[in-house]
Amino acid sequence: MASDEDLADAAVRLAIRYLLSQTGPDVKICRSAALVEAAAKRVMADVVAEARTQRYSWGRIGAQLGVPRTAAQKRFGGAPTEERAQTLEDQYTRMRDFVKGAEMYPEMYGDLDKSEDGYELRATCDRCLRRRRGQTLDPLSVSLG
Question: b/e map of 99-115 (b: 16 or more CB within 10 Å)?
Answer without folding.
Answer: bbebeeeeeebeebeee
